[in-house]
Write a structure and sequence with these properties.
Oligomer: single chain
Order of helices and strands: EHEEEEHEHEHHEHEEHEEEEHEEHH
Mean pLDDT: 92
């Protein structure tokens, strides 16, 4: 079976691990980059070429790694291409609808809330004056300002809600540069959150991500320290699996935080990394488990 992996760098840790895993199962792996794609609507059908190879004819499945920094045009085209491949019988992991939902933090959160999943209070607006006048609805000592589209904690800033001058400058700058103002309550998590790796309808592994002493951010890419969770609480396991399912993710990194007796979903990542998780779960070959799942659930 020919399996494509859309990745910016085939030599990156996660991509190389996936390539190794698929090859160990006897499958041919074709590393792909979106910037190498040429899509052609011919008289008979759509053709999607990468270096002269028509993906629709040649591959059975594709696995999508993170897009990285892209323009809106590029993001829309890449999703369009994934939809086209999916609609032409290619199995896409995760399906483009799941990626589209998860990459947009607001859409992901309100979809989860619609289905009863607890999420942080979040305020979104285009006008800085409206955003600042509405702040008291958040009811939190600190506000986290986030980009609507982003990952690994980049661009997120924590500000005291009482520091209105700083918040005003941030909100005004975002509005001036035509960005949305995305404000979220800061959940007092004690310096640790939970990453649950969901594969299909099961939890493959989970860990605490503990923030370094110099930061409130727990992201592994930002210096967070992983610590394996040997036995996940049933409530958290159920919420994580349900959150991934609601957004259509077969492969997902679900980030949760506990505050007292309450559990909140912060984010569902449809293109999760697992380097930190793998480092504390040496008995689980995460890439191999993903590869097995993809092969088993490929449509042709």
């Amino acid at each position: 079976m020919n399996i494509g992996i859309f990745t910016r760098r085939p030599s990156s840790w996660a991509s190389s691990a996936l390539i190794r895993a698929f090859r160990s199962l006897g499958h041919r792996v074709i590393p792909l980059r979106f910037r190498d794609v040429v899509a052609f609507i011919d008289r008979d059908r759509l053709k999607v070429f990468v270096k002269g190879m028509d993906l629709i004819s040649e591959v059975a499945a594709v696995v999508v790694r993170p897009f990285g920094r892209v323009s809106l045009d590029q993001a829309v085209l890449r999703l369009d291409l994934l939809y086209a491949l999916h609609e032409h019988g290619i199995s896409v992991f995760n399906e483009p609808m799941a990626i589209e939902k998860c990459v947009d933090k607001f859409r992901a959160l309100y979809t989860l809330k619609l289905h009863g999943i607890p999420v942080p209070r979040t305020l979104v607006a285009e006008r800085s004056s409206l955003a600042l006048r509405s702040l008291d609805m958040i009811k939190s000592r600190h506000i986290v300002v986030k980009p609507m589209f982003g990952s690994r904690g980049h661009g997120a800033t924590r500000v005291k809600i009482s520091d209105r001058e700083v918040l005003w400058e941030i909100a005004r700058s975002l509005a001036f540069t035509r960005h949305t103002i995305y404000l979220q309550e800061y959940i007092e998590h004690g310096g640790a959150d939970i990453r649950v790796f969901v594969l299909g309808d099961k939890v493959l592994a989970a860990m605490y991500r503990k923030a370094p002493s110099s930061s409130w951010k727990t992201n592994i890419a930002r210096g967070g320290r992983p610590e394996r969770i040997e036995r996940l609480e049933p409530e958290i396991e159920e919420i994580a699996i349900k959150a991934a399912s609601i957004l259509g993710c077969e492969i997902a990194g679900v980030d949760l935080v506990r505050e007292g007796e309450s559990v909140f979903v912060l984010e569902v990542n449809s293109q999760p990394g697992w380097h930190g998780l793998q480092s504390v779960c040496p008995d689980i070959d995460i890439a191999l488990e993903i590869a097995k799942y993809v092969v088993e659930h490929t449509r042709k």
